[in-house]
Amino acid sequence: MVQFGHDFKEKYYSLLDKDVTLVNHGSYGTTSTMVMEELKKVCELEENYPDAFYLIKAKERYVAQIKALSDYIGLDSKNLALVPNATMGINTVLRSVPWDFEKDSVLVHTTSYGACSNTVKFLHDYYGLKFDTTNNVYPMEDDDVLKNFEEKLATGKHKLCMFDMISSMPGVMLPYEKLITLCKKYNVLSLIDGAHAIGMVDLKFIDELQPDFLTTNLHKWMSVPKSCAMLYVNPKHHSTIQTNPISWSYIPNDIKEGSDEVADTVMIDKFWYLGTVSYAPMLCVEEAIKFRKEICGGEKVIRNYQVQLRKEAIKLVIEQFGPGAELLENTRGTLNVPGMFNISFPVEEKYVPVVKYLIDNFHEWRKFKADCEGIMVAKDKSFAPFLVHNNKIYVRFSVFIINEASDYTKSAKSIKVRLEEALEEKYQTLYGVGGKLQNLNID
Ligand SMILES: Cc1ncc(COP(=O)(O)O)c(C=O)c1O
């Protein structure tokens, strides 16, 4: 029986600063030492004889990673590629759909990840691609999420719908299987941002439901070194998908499925080499799977630990944040995921107008957030991201196999102090002598 927690962290995550209390695994992931050692070996191999590496070994090794990954998650390997990250996965798809910019439109949601919705905005600003947004305001029932999407999809205006499996901020689950079905019902392409998915949820549904496109980060929860993500492309798009950047493997998209160019290996042929960069992180997928299988005991064991610890962690954070703190959850309990949870941060009466001011002045909110988060990172060595959603501040915590319950008491305590200090400072600037709001006589 594997004993996860702090001893496990010390043994298998020895590169982590010992003074850091890591409760933000969700943002960047963290990689076990054993996999980092493999990364070093691959880098050395690249440098040992670059010609041999790029001309002979790299493709062979890439194919082995795809095979190991598809076996591990139970998907058909011919639809999978590796890309540097989820942002690249989304860009790859959005920049290879053969758009008719005169009429095509994309549907996203208000909680879509900024980098990904910005890709849609870029296509809008530069080429005139239209887009529309559904409003996700949590806590929200799945039925309401689906209803909002369906209202927009039923208009027949949208060619593609981009939605998350697990959103970033707040860290909540969407009813992704039903959203795929809805997209099919209205003949809309589905592009799924599953950045947080692998390592947290089972992905077998992909081959069963066959969405159009899906990307998921392997460097977040799967212990693959940064930068590595998986891109799934439905076989019907193998001929049109193009790499980002366009590279040697470009095949014009007038080639139809079934022709010689669109063979079973087209995803490998297109994606294995996109110019000279280090492919070392991608070539560590096998080692990361070995770590999760052999050292951790497999996906179920890992998830079970996260789910149990998460329950305890929620109680401890609520205790620290004090009266008014609540878990972000809907009545059916479908929002939460094994490795993340969001707790509302209760704000003293005196600071309510400060929060309102920050919500209304987005650039000030961003500065407030960056300053406060910077202090948490540097001074407390314990950081959890926070956001304003539905007029409340929520802090998002991550739960991983290196954590123990005491991490949440410790981090919640310091986060509370830092947030309150920052709110007091802002209060003084706004309401103190010469303060902006006092002068304007606004309260
Ligand atoms: C929902 C979601 N999409 C996309 C990304 C982007 O991931 P990356 O920075 O690895 O491209 C993230 C990162 O946290 C995310 O949470």
TrEMBL record:
PANTHER family: HERCYNYLCYSTEINE SULFOXIDE LYASE (PTHR43092:SF2), L-CYSTEINE DESULFHYDRASE (PTHR43092). Residues 69-241 form the Aminotransferase class V domain. It comes from Maudiozyma saulgeensis. Gene3D superfamilies: Type I PLP-dependent aspartate aminotransferase-like (Major domain) (3.40.640.10). It comes from the Eukaryota. InterPro entries: Aminotrans_V_dom, PyrdxlP-dep_Trfase, PyrdxlP-dep_Trfase_major. This is Aminotransferase class V domain-containing protein. Keywords: Pyridoxal phosphate. The keyword Cytoplasm does not apply. Pfam families: Aminotran_5.
